[in-house]
């Protein structure tokens, strides 16, 4: 077999895992084989990843280090170090939108074109706008940004408007803290998203194409810029007789700007506060022009629909949810990464088969981020589908999927999300601004062990009111993490309020730290490590001093220090000795 | 000052470029000073309170000068689940500063951010944009040590 190229995974998480050093090393050592930087193949747990491309197919290597032996065994196509494609994963996944992600040079338009890129645009150029809209409608594609609104219908609204300027915006704000599908797609195959936007411009008559991208994604921004320049060079932005241009705007760190009307305000250079709808953006949006906003992944699906046809696209999925969905899988799983599954697979498939989590080790998944809810492990036969997830009190969301292990506290998780939404509330609606704060206070009280049944009742009562009394999706969904944990994990709330215990031993005020002395080898590392000198020379932790920082637990070579139930640890009399 | 106006001259005066201008200034100077706010207000011919309103709305904009090394601790969901609050604690402990502060030497500043998009490596931090993942306490302290020695890999 002949090696044709060496591809190094150099997406954000590849770089974080050491791809830059690896690239420098390989470039120094290998002179006669082309080396290219590719994006994300979804196996983020195995980074740094290298694909040795040969005339006999690809050879993937995982956790590659800048070492001669690692390089040599790759060039010899040895078995050692190869990424083992697990059958369970490949059996559940269906790679369509991500087909080119991590497989082609992130910055090469030629490679995108060689793999069928821009054939969908070419096809669209020969169609009537109304037919493109009809095709997207027939595909059943629904918005991947969370709401699940039918894309074809939205495009139909914009297409029907007569205006001097019409605006199509790509929502690349990816606000769910714990989601990275859009980042991966933009970094790895920026042209696919841009091609979707160009087709959107043809379908709707949009004259301005704007991308609003999270500033925390510098590599995505760089790759998009490069791709846009290439589009201009090739004249691919000439849509028949007219020419459209892209504008790339960076967000400035406000979650609420993912909401459509807030995003429009932000693009206008204002504070990103949402406004009441109607008027809908398709009637009056950016600077008053008719405007439609779609998510990155939504645009990423569009070239596929035109290439394979609406019927083929719609053959995948469930009754109400067509095609595939990307999920950013993270948390307590063995194989965190990016997964693409057909609509209709079960949550269990994603967690156990794709993520490789052990059965029994998982308590729940959190899906949809701060707007979403949790699904307990005994409901993991629920299928990925907009409507069935809603019936469980969760949402499809944009694709953030955090697996929560048995040793995590659900009340603390709910508190975390409320802290997030309370901070991110733009402050316009009283219920959202004050309501989330009040809920957060009660949750803090409970996690501090000072809560009682009234606090739980208060949360259950206020949640629905915040939903009703809020203007935008942020406030309307902010109570969801609380409501859904109350629904499925009421017993954990009760443990905190009635018994003043945190079953997961995660809440600091409800746990102590103790050394299990029988396994202790008296090495003294913990004593030296503890910053507040809470550990005595006899290796006893004084919980009156301990700040619950977990440092000693981390350093103990015998793993014999752990958190224990509040009150079962040792308490020094005066509050300290040393 | 002339440096600021130089920077702003390249930016169109349409109001929709206000955030872009602020970002350009912050990239250049590390924060948004009072002088910058005035220059920007002048550039777009809007009131300084308008500019201040926008600055205070967006978490990205800093009103105080950050340290030479800007540490961002990710407290997105994945990182939170994987112990981001412990990471912040260990950093505060070692640096003697809290979230949002800069140390006396002006070497390190500490801030919490939501999701750096590398959730599969949680918990993660970034130092001047360079991301470090799968952190434990030991790895974290080594990173600080390397930066103290004068810039790390
Ligand atoms: C508070 C809030 C944050 C949002 N954040 C995002 C986001 O980060 N990315 C996104 O695509 N949509 C986000 N949305 C949904 C958008 O408002 C909008 O529905 C979506 O971009 C439409 O595109 P789609 O139909 O293609 O999904 C958010 C909504 C709300 C209320
Ligand atoms: S948890 Fe922290 S404060 Fe407590 S004993 Fe261990 S190192 Fe010391
Ligand atoms: S670090 Fe662990 S083994 Fe060593 S003295 Fe402390 S408890 Fe004992
Ligand atoms: S495989 Fe590297 S970003 Fe996913
Ligand atoms: S949650 Fe920390 S990188 Fe995403």
Describe the model.
The complex is a heterodimer of chains A (578) and B (153). Chain A has 578 residues and is α/β, with parallel strands linked by helices. Chain A folds into five domains: 3-85, Glutaredoxin (3-Layer(aba) Sandwich); 109-312, Rossmann fold; 324-405, Ubiquitin-like (UB roll); 410-497, de novo design (two linked rop proteins), CATH 1.20.1440.230; 511-565, Alpha-Beta Plaits. The longest helix of chain A is centred in the last third of the chain and has 18 residues, at 430-447. The termini of chain A are far apart. The model of chain A has no long low-confidence stretch (mean pLDDT 96). Chain B is an alpha+beta fold and 153 residues long. Chain B has two domains: 3-57, no CATH class; 69-148, 3-Layer(aba) Sandwich (Glutaredoxin). Helix content of chain B is 46%, strand content 12%. Chains A and B meet through helix 1, strand 11, strand 15, helix 17 and helix 24 of A and helix 2, helix 4, helix 5 and helix 6 of B. One FE2/S2 (inorganic) cluster is lined by residues 9, 11, 13-14, 40-44, 47, 49, 184, 337-338 of chain A.
Short description:
With 578 residues, chain A is of the alpha/beta class. Chain A contains 24 helices and 17 strands. Chain B is elongated and about 50 Å long.
Provide keyphrases for this structure:
heterodimer, A: 578 residues, Glutaredoxin, Rossmann fold, Ubiquitin-like (UB roll), 5 domains, 24 helices, 39% helix, B: 153 residues, alpha+beta, elongated, binds flavin mononucleotide, binds iron/sulfur cluster, binds FE2/S2 (inorganic) cluster
